[in-house]
Known about the structure:
By secondary structure, the chain is mainly α.
Amino acid sequence: MKPPHPGSLATTCLAALTLCCAHTASAAPLYSLAPPQAALARRLAHLQLGLHVGVELAALALLILLLESGLAQRVAHAVAQSSSRAWLQTILFVAALLLLLNGCILLPADAIRHSALLQAGISVQSWPAWLRDQALITLLMLVVGTPVLVLARWLLTRSPRRAWLWFWLASIPVILAAAFVLPQLVEPLFNHFEPLADSHPQLVKQFQRVVARTGTPIPPQRMFLMRASSKVNGFNAYVSGLGPTQRIVVWDTTADRMPADEILFILAHECGHYVLHHLLWGLTLGILGTLLLLWLTFLLAHRLLRLRGHRWRIQSLDSLSGLVVVLLALVLLEILSEPIGNSISRAFEHQADVYAQEALHGIVPDPQTTAVAAFQQLGQAWLEDPNPNPLVVFWTFDHPSIQSRANFAAHYNPWIAGGHPRFFSAPQETPAAGTRNPLH
Length: 440
Ligand SMILES: [Zn+2]
């Protein structure tokens, strides 16, 4: 349910169209901020975009610099002198490369972002706590990234022409396992989770009315509260996990600070992701997209080697410094294919918005008003720019803009005569006019 923000460098990209990426101009904007907040939101949006583009360009520049200066080759030579074991050489070289990228680019960019969010009052996380999270992220990057690149080099050595295919096949169980264990092993490293029913039984009760309409059982054991308020003032909820570990998580900021009906809209949106199997679809498309991405990376890396290999003194991709060429090709393709993955993500988000609005019909007095109010609350909490550039939305947003979501919600009423709901046929209950749900 997150508000829109630029996707990460590592976004896996695929092919698709978006249902709602277009910026919707309106004479009277449905989502708006007071002038001082609007100015601050614009500055934040510019900063976020600058960091997003800056990180991508800096990563490309650093990798090119390593190759052009001969530094990659010299470090590879030094590492090769330190051990005769190929796997140990690869681990040392890859770890040094990842630490360099993280220390020179990702960490400073995130520090700037954190500082801006602190000043804007969106983040409340202390710098020591932020540093602890960064240390964990770096550790995870090494634990995951090093074996991945060691495997890539080993496959390039064994099968120079089909390494991309074997690597893709090996990645499938890893991607599925990662999605499975994410909510149980990784997410608790960064935040505290507890059953939603422990502290918000009334919310669970109200939520079950929405769940009952969906026809898909989502037991309270799959609803969790995340203690986000120690780090951030923004609102959010999300779905994560796979199969038996799939769950709906709502932040305590959302559960404690948003009005009751608006919380139900956000939870109904997550129900949409859950019921429509968006995570499974995302994984499937991600795996197929990875196949295309790896094949293109392999082709581009060979092309780069043919063009510049002599200058870089690199003869093959399975050498240590050859991995830098592979990484350069991968980063370049990730950047170019970023809008594809984000377009698919926005399409899923729009579908979940439609689902939520239909699911709430008969449960809240006016789903259109409730949805618009929820988007206003979300936008205010995250200081979202009310008028983002359409090209920026298309290229970098993994959610539609808040303005376009609010605009769609205000005009979407499939229950009027001649309307055609996409997911529900008829309401099962109708509240008394003006009755709001009594959560707190
Ligand atoms: Zn969503």
